[in-house]
Amino acid sequence: MIQRPRGTRDFGPVEMAKRRKVESAMREACAVFGFGEVVTPTFEHAELFTLRSGQNVVDEMYVFRDKGDREMALRPEITASVVRFYVNEMSNFPKPLKLYYVGNCFRYENPQSGRYREFFQLGAELIGTKNPESDAEVIALAVNCIRSAGLENFVVRVGHIGILKAMVNKEIGDEKLAGEVLHMIDKEDWDAMGEMFDARALPRQLFDKIAAIADMKGELELLNNLDQSEATGYLQELFGVLKLYGIEDCLIDMGIVRGLDYYTGMVFEIDAPRLGAEKQIMGGGSYTLSELFGGEPVFSTGFAIGIDRVVLALEAEREIAVPAQLDAYVVPAKDDMRKYAFGIVARLRSQGLRADVDLMRRSMSKNLKYASSVNARYAVIVGKEEMAKRMVTLRDMKSGEQRQVMADDIASEIRKS
Known about the structure:
- This protein is of the alpha+beta class.
- The protein is 40% helix and 23% strand.
- It is built from 15 helices and 17 strands.
- A hairpin with a 5-residue loop joins β16 and β17 (402-406).
């Protein structure tokens, strides 16, 4: 028997109903903020991602050569694709450009709870401006998406990658080595970082300084412990704008580095504490990518939400309520009533109800059992006497109560309840 590939999943109707409910809520949040949906290819030229996605992402990419011997890759993330789309076709559009997307991504990593080789994201990009107001707009949208999905217990952390990035690049000098250090900060792998500093004879004083800044986590007042700079002033102004959005419980976290190398300024993450080690459900920040893809330099801010982890976080809080799969399941009591039953199901569907009919020629008892198993709200039972009166028996599948109604009134009776 052929099994699905490791790190992938199949989603049945009930699971998909939950996921679509979450997606729909977040899509609506994006629309409310004036963001329009875009779709980009599932695979791109590999170079699009190797230019600036970070070594850890590059190492996990699914890469292949097509029949024209071109190196292609399944997308490991979608921001680069959206910026490529912008450079190719939208650079002359009025600014700022507000775009959002929903799609699947692929990374060859070790599968575990909340981490898969195929995973799903909803993300947004605000292209063409860099100021505290535009960054606050993006953070507010991310928070609104999470709230709209129904999650109550989450934490927003905001930092500025420019402070650590500038220090590491200046003190170390070697761009590749500096990138390794930033990656270790992102993973909070301080033991490995200490070993690397010793092996490369890098000053321990620098290690201690980096660790002290990365460990700054808490209220906005923590910024007073840093040398005042453009970055700290920017964050203070950003938090002031966030308060105008009604977002007052963000935390400062100067250890946020992000695994993608293209972030340049403000960075932020949202955690769902109930998920434990895989608690991060969203990450984003400000970046410049367009010039790498042949466009003019343009500032942008964006984020990506892990839909899989949001669903897990919601289920950790409570059951995700989804509507019944069927409004009505039509049951002919005898074979000679099947034609009448098919006429009824066709009418119900034409009136916008989710309706199905027995296709297996089951007995009445088995049909009612099936109606219950597919979570139908009502069974519409067509008997000989009812058919003669152009009536049916409407059975509530939860309470077991049933009543006779006119066949023409089935839809209105179901909608009343």
